Amino acid sequence: MVTGGTRGIGAAISKALKAAGYKVAAAMRAMTTAAEKFKADTGIPVYKWDVASFERLCGRGQAGRGRSRPVDVLVNNAGITKDTFSQDDARQWTAVIKYHLARCSI
């Protein structure tokens, strides 16, 4: 499972793992046209999985649950940036922290 696995570095990681023989799934916060194109072009399944949501990450909404075998390797590549936030914008700071520090016991 590669979070943020359909764009940029995540897409390169997903493709490299598949080329190395791994059974790969990619996760995205939102299913976009680009994510659907990535899935069609690579044959890599794409799941909607928001790593900033504790319940979705660690609870019932876990990506791929019930759809495939357990996750053996997790590449936690997902991240966001808010280059415009200031010291006073706690909401944007919190969003960045949630994405970059998301974790749970699996």
Which structural category do the helix and sheet elements fall into?
alpha/beta
The main sheet comes to:
4 strands, parallel
Placed side by side, the strands forming the largest sheet appear as 3-2-1-4
Tell me what the CATH architecture is: 3-Layer(aba) Sandwich
Could you state the order of secondary-structure elements as H and E?
EHEHEHEH
State the CATH superfamily name.
Answer: NAD(P)-binding Rossmann-like Domain
Tell me the helix content.
25-40%
From the N-terminal CA to the C-terminal CA, the straight-line distance is 13 Å
Number of DSSP strand runs: 4
Determine the number of helices (DSSP H or I, runs of at least 4 residues): 4
Highest CATH level, the class: Alpha Beta
Q: Could you say what the CATH topology is called?
A: Rossmann fold
In short:
This protein has 106 residues and is an alpha/beta fold.
Polypeptide structure, described:
The protein has 106 residues and is of the alpha/beta class. It has a single domain, classed as 3-Layer(aba) Sandwich (Rossmann fold). The protein is 36% helix and 9% strand. It is built from four helices and four strands; from the N terminus they run E-H-E-H-E-H-E-H. It is elongated, with a radius of gyration of 14 Å. Residues 60-65 have low confidence and may be disordered.
